[in-house]
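Fold Annotation — chain and its backbone
Next Lines — sequence and tokenised fold

***
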Amino acid sequence: MSDDAGDAQVGDPPRGNSLLSDGLNEAQREGVEPPTFDAGLRSHLRDELEGALGGVAEKFSIDGPLVMFKHRLAGVFGCEASFLAEDEQPFVYNTHIARGAVAHKAIELGINWKSPDPAPAELVDRALDSLTEGDSYLASWLYQCSDVERAELRSLAVSSVAAFFDCWPPLKPQWHPVTESSSRVKLCGGRIVLTGKTDLTLGRSQGGTARKVIVDLKTGWRQPSAHREDLRFYALVET
């Protein structure tokens, strides 16, 4: 059960004073008691969602469900007209859009790197190699982009990755860090599907106590309201 979610802008300074000898700042060392929740919360949320979405679900089938993820919800609730217009246009990558995917992949590699303190540039180069070898649209763009675009992308990604490892304390194994964790919930007999992939989770589910923290890394403009809605969606799917 998830049940705490915190958003992080790559490059944000840690709260509290400077890091202490154990790699944590004072605010992180203090900690707080995790919140608890009723055992029936999951069932209550499912009943409420299925009751509200019943009419919409009738228009879809198990073989052709309505699949919802954070980007689509953010687009609809941000500006529906803009969302519909963008939905009709083919998606086109550029260095600033690709930066997030490359930085996230590099951070994922860095968190799971065996040797201590890997260089951000090395992580970004490995991330670029890995993503270029894939079969996604991003892989195609990386393969075809110019040397200038690739150099600009590398510079942007290295900056983001360096900022992450400068600001975050070392992630200890006992915190159970997991990167790129996918969650999927079927509602209304599978006619509506909620899906999400979190950049980083810390902790593990523990009965009626919230001991899992969801971290959604951002490399673009700060949008506090929209970013919190992203986290709420992730928490709902995890629940």
Summary: The two ends are 5 Å apart (CA to CA). The chain is about 45% helix and 15% strand. The beta strands are 4-9, 66-68, 178-187, 192-202, 213-218.
